[in-house]
Design brief:
four-stranded antiparallel β-sheet, alpha+beta, about 40% strand, Alpha-Beta Plaits, five-stranded mixed β-sheet, NusG-like N-terminal domain-containing protein
């Protein structure tokens, strides 16, 4: 069975006015596509365009550094009340038109996934680093957005300081920063 990414997920309608959509960018230039959307789509149609990112630790030059990385590589999020008007304005760009013809492009984010992502990232659309310990084989997150949600963690990479979350069956796991500060047997 092929695992689908979150960017390929097509989901159901919600009962709220503003809906999140994911745009899978043709060339993975997310900053350029965000700028394009904000400059070329009317403010009445597009409420916001952003990249969802997470804080992670990366080791280079002998030290650990905090950095931000995209949760969904090559994807931007668009907020709108009117999907049809958004699609009409997006299709005025020739590169996006060809991209949409290939069956890629704009897809709605499910209510469950959107509420989870909003709760974790807040208004900044950035998921901060979590910290925790492993005691007798059980992960206990002591601080950060994963605190109290340990059951969502499917795998931990202690060396890269990452947690993998599988929220929706059949989709690729989502990454979040998790530093394990202590492990006891």
């Amino acid at each position: 069975m092929k695992t689908r990414s979150y960017c390929e997920l097509v989901t159901y309608r919600k009962n709220v006015r503003i809906i999140w959509y994911i745009l899978q960018c043709p060339d993975e230039n997310t900053a350029g596509w965000i700028r394009f959307c904000k400059e070329n789509i009317s403010g009445d149609v597009l409420k916001d365009a952003f990249v969802l990112s997470y804080e992670r630790m990366k080791r280079y030059q002998g030290d650990w550094h905090l950095e931000w990385d995209n949760v969904f590589s090559g994807c931007i999020f668009l907020e709108t009340e009117d999907m049809e008007a958004l699609l009409k304005e997006l299709l005025q760009n020739k590169a996006l038109f060809r991209h949409f013809q290939k069956g890629k492009g704009l897809q709605e984010v499910s209510g469950k996934a959107e509420s989870f992502l909003q709760e974790f990232s807040g208004k900044s659309h950035q998921i901060p680093m979590s910290r925790g310990v492993i005691r007798k084989g059980t992960t206990i997150v002591t601080e950060g957005p994963l605190r109290g949600r340990e059951q969502w963690i499917t795998r931990i990479d202690r060396h890269k300081r990452l947690a993998f979350l599988n929220l929706i069956p059949g989709t690729a796991p989502m990454k979040a920063g998790l530093e394990i500060t202590e492990k006891t047997l």
